[in-house]
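Inputs:
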Amino acid sequence: MNSISSDVIRGYNDTMILYLLMQRPSYGYEISKQIKQLTQEKYIIKETTLYSAFTRMEKNGYIESFSSDEEGSGKRRTYYRITESGKNFYKEKCREWILTKEVVEHFILKEEPYGNN
Amino acid sequence: MNSISSDVIRGYNDTMILYLLMQRPSYGYEISKQIKQLTQEKYIIKETTLYSAFTRMEKNGYIESFSSDEEGSGKRRTYYRITESGKNFYKEKCREWILTKEVVEHFILKEEPYGNN
DNA sequence: AATGGTGTTATGACTGTCGTACTACGACTG
DNA sequence: CAGTCGTAGTACGACAGTCATAACACCATT
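Outputs:
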C-alpha cells in the first residue's frame, strides 16, 4: 500500500479542486484527470467525493456553475469557475497548510535513509 | 482564525498519539497536554476525540491499556502503551505523511514573502 | 452488438470528530 | 466550609465528508 488514505487528504480535496479552478474553469471529469496526472496517480479522487465537493462548494459560494453550451455535440458537462470568495478560501487553506505541516512534523520520525537494521 | 481545522488534521490524531506513546506509556490527560505544548497551542485535541481514538486504537491492537495501580492516591487513570503492531502502523503513517506532503504541495501556491500587490 | 472512454447523478452507509453534559477527586482559598 | 480550579474520564447523539455501489447517457471504435 503506497497510496494515500482519504482521512489524510480529507480537508484538502477542496483545496486541490480550487487550485485547478484558479487556472481556468473546468468540469468534474477533467479535474479528476488533472489530479491524477499531477500526483502521478498517487492520489485519485473518487467521483462521488469530487461531485459532492462541487455541490458543497457551490452552496458555500466558492464556485459557480455554468453549462457548456458548446457549439458542438451533446456532451453535457457542468463547468465550474472559482469566485472571489473561493479565491480567499483557497488562500486561507494554503496558509493553513503551512501551519499543518509544522504541527504534524513534530510527530513524525524520519527514517534513516541509509538505515542499518 | 489561525488554528487548524479538524478536517485537516484528521487522520493524524492517531499518529500524534502513537508518537507520544512511543516515548513512554501515558494517559489521556497527559497526552493532550503534550500535544498542546509541542504545537505551541496551535493544535488542541478535543477530549472526546482523544478518548475515542484510544478505544479505537486499542480495538485495532495498536495500543494496550493498563491501570495505574500507583502506590499513592485515588487518581484513577488509564495508561496506554504502544504495541509492536502500533509501532508498525506509526511507521507506515510517517511514510504516508511524506507522500501526502508531496501530493498536497502540488496544489499550494506560496505567497510572496515580500509581495507587492 | 459490444466495449471502453467520457461525463454525471442518486442513495445509503460508515467513520471520525464534535458539542454538550456529566461524574469524581484533591487542593487551594476566601 | 462552600466554591472554584485542575486533573481525569465517560456517555450520547449529531454532523460532515467520504465511500461503495449502481445507474444513466452519449460517442467512437472494433
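Remarks. The first helix of chain A runs from residue 6 to 9. The two ends of chain A are 22 Å apart (CA to CA).
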